[in-house]
Design brief:
- The complex is a heterodimer.
- By secondary structure, chain A is an all-alpha fold.
- Among the domains of chain A are: 51 residues, no CATH class; 132 residues, no CATH class.
- Chain A has 23 helices and no strands.
- The longest helix of chain A has 22 residues.
- About 2% of the residues of chain A have low confidence.
- Chain B is mostly helical.
- Chain B has a domain of 96 residues.
- Chain B has 12 helices and no strands.
- The chains are: A mainly alpha, B mainly alpha.
Chain lengths: 378, 221
């Protein structure tokens, strides 16, 4: 578009500044590279010839999108092909602007995503990836919000979680067929979950959007996702990331402190995961929830201290142990013989001082009224 | 003896303020426990002691008829536990001396507070004359350590009062002229009722004994 106007007399620096100003995907620090590219175009011998034959790439994309839009009204196979086509167009960052300006297409994609993702995992995955690409840029968030992509994504997460449970319970179901192999199915659902959770993660960068998601039951939806023991690492990381964001709100803590809510138990069980990132995220969420007395009580009743014994070198784990040792009436239930042994080892170590968090735990347990049940010192 | 106390005090020696707080909390517990033993011995309400410890029998013998042991000294069993050994006491004193020199107020405060929680059943039965004179000199330095820190001054006054509970050590306190320092603290902390109360308590102990009475009557003007 800009190159159309280039001739021998064009002020390249000025044009480069104009391009950087108008194309928001180009960072301002790339101005030198833009200038270099424009100079190269200006110096090409055949430039004038090419300029005459120039076809605006955005027009090409728009015509492609028009064709895709027609396909989206076809049968499921057509829709899948169309979604793949949009996905390939999304690979070029500059095209994202063009896609979002094609309201009919975005509207159709959002509608199909909402209505038909239940019947076609492939369609769900492809359209989900299109929205994920758009969600990477904050300036496209208003469009995604307008078409209620967040709500649809949450509904799909719920639906995919249920599907995973279903696959788990029907392990022997049509094992012979590769496509219907439970493991393949589970992997496919996990991929969809990962795309959905990643989209939610990006949309929740805006605290107002996050609040809306929470009102629509984000915590419940993600807690349900964590129930899958075979959930692969990436969707699990995304799920924990979302929960970490939600855990800074008092409402989340109050809600999860309810007797029947399984979030705390699930987080505690994920502390035995072999992946350090997952353990660290789970600990951070528990730490945030630990500011609520009800949650602390639940953590102690769920034998959190047993899991923490294995994580003695982790500073967040020790901070969490300190959090749960705040309530005098609960202290007696925290200290298992194994944990006391670990504390004893840390105190007896050759290090001049002991970690700050562990020191704070020891202060709490050495308070006169805590010592009654405390067999470490006496 | 308290388990791990040596390791804890080693960490305190290295400047670990959190461990100093832990040691002080432990001293507070043994202090409260002794108070409770005294109360239970006279009230015969054994339940009170079970609020303090899981094993009350460790500290007071109950007879078959659920009554208390009629022994004269209710603290015999407590003393037998030997929670605070002479070695521990010496180690705490050394830490205070070390950190007074370094002007490390918070750590000195915690360790002085620890000594204040120890009773005659915890402290070594006989302390040499020179050692007590050293302690008095140390208290003087503690009271002057942080001019603006009232809590530090209070701890020093309370420690001084503790020495005056005993006839022999009270004489040494009287001879040291520390009473003048107390008067100076009184004047500097004009309006602080707690400081005044503890200085009065110190004077009360000194007045109790004939040999030290004149120090208060003459020395305080």
């Amino acid at each position: 578009m800009f190159t159309k106007s280039i001739d021998g007399d064009t002020d390249i620096s000025r044009l480069a500044r104009k391009i950087v100003k108008q194309c928001k995907q180009i960072p301002p620090q790339w101005i030198c590279q833009v200038e270099e590219a424009l100079t190269e175009i200006q110096q090409r011998d055949d430039f004038d010839q090419e300029a005459n034959d120039f076809v605006d790439p955005s027009e090409v994309v728009v015509s492609k999108l028009d064709r895709v839009l027609d396909m989206l009204y076809g049968d499921t196979d057509d829709k899948i092909a169309a979604s793949l086509e949009v996905l390939s167009i999304c690979n070029e960052v500059n095209n994202l602007h063009i896609i979002t300006q094609h309201h009919q297409l975005v509207s159709a994609l959002a509608r199909i995503y909402s209505d038909q993702s239940m019947y076609s995992p492939e369609l769900s995955f492809n359209i989900g990836k299109v929205f994920l690409s758009l969600s990477n840029f904050e300036e496209f968030h208003p469009i995604l919000i307008k078409y209620q992509v967040g709500s649809t994504v949450m509904a799909i997460i719920e639906q995919e979680t249920n599907r995973c449970v279903e696959v788990e319970t029907n392990q022997s179901y049509r094992v012979g067929n590769e496509l219907d192999n439970p493991r393949t199915k589970n992997r496919r659902h996990s991929c969809i979950l990962h795309v959905c959770l990643s989209t939610l993660m990006r949309l929740s960068d805006n605290p107002e959007v996050l609040c809306k998601m929470m009102k629509k039951g984000l915590v419940d939806t993600i807690t349900q996702t964590l129930a899958n023991d075979n959930l692969p690492m990436y969707p699990m990381e995304s799920a924990l990331f979302m929960l970490h964001r939600a855990s800074i709100f008092g409402e989340t803590a109050e809600y999860s402190s309810n007797q029947d809510h399984p979030l705390i138990e699930r987080l505690i069980s994920s502390l035995s995961n072999t992946n350090e990132c997952i353990v660290s995220s789970a600990l951070s969420i528990l730490y945030n929830l630990g500011f609520c007395k009800g949650c602390r009580r639940k953590m102690i009743n769920s034998e959190l201290s047993l899991s923490l014994t294995e994580l003695f070198d982790n500073s967040i784990a020790m901070s969490l142990l300190y959090q749960v040792s705040i309530d005098p009436e609960q202290r007696r239930n925290i200290f298992s013989p194994k944990l006391l042994q670990a504390i004893s080892l840390a105190v007896d170590s050759n290090k001049a001082t002991i970690p700050l968090q562990l020191g704070a735990v020891l202060i709490n347990v050495s308070k006169p009224f805590a010592l009654k049940q405390y067999t470490y010192f006496f | 003896m308290i388990s791990n106390i040596d390791s804890l005090l080693d960490k305190v020696s290295s400047g670990d303020i959190l461990m100093a707080k832990v040691v002080r909390n432990l001293a507070k517990w043994t202090h409260d426990l002794q108070h409770c033993i005294g109360l239970v011995y006279y009230s015969r309400d054994f339940h009170q002691l079970s609020l303090m410890t899981n094993d009350p029998q460790k500290f007071l013998q109950m007879n078959e008829d659920q009554g208390m042991d009629s022994a004269d000294d209710p603290y015999t069993r407590y003393r037998d536990q030997n929670f605070w050994s002479t070695r521990t006491y010496n180690q705490i004193s050394s830490i205070i001396q070390l950190y007074v020199k370094k002007d490390a107020g918070p750590l000195v405060l915690e360790m002085t507070g620890t000594l204040n929680h120890l009773t005659r059943f915890d402290l070594p039965s006989s302390d040499g004359r020179e050692r007590i004179i050293d302690s008095i000199a140390l208290m003087r330095r503690i009271s002057m350590l942080d001019a603006s820190n009232i809590v530090m001054k209070l701890e020093a006054i309370m420690l001084c009062s503790k020495l005056c509970e005993n006839h022999d050590t009270a004489s040494l306190v009287a001879e040291s002229n520390i009473i003048h320092d107390m008067i100076s603290i009184w004047e500097k902390c004009d309006g602080d009722a707690e400081v005044h109360l503890h200085i009065l308590k110190l004077c009360e102990y000194l007045i109790k004994f004939e040999e030290t009475r004149s120090t208060v009557l003459m020395g305080t003007g």
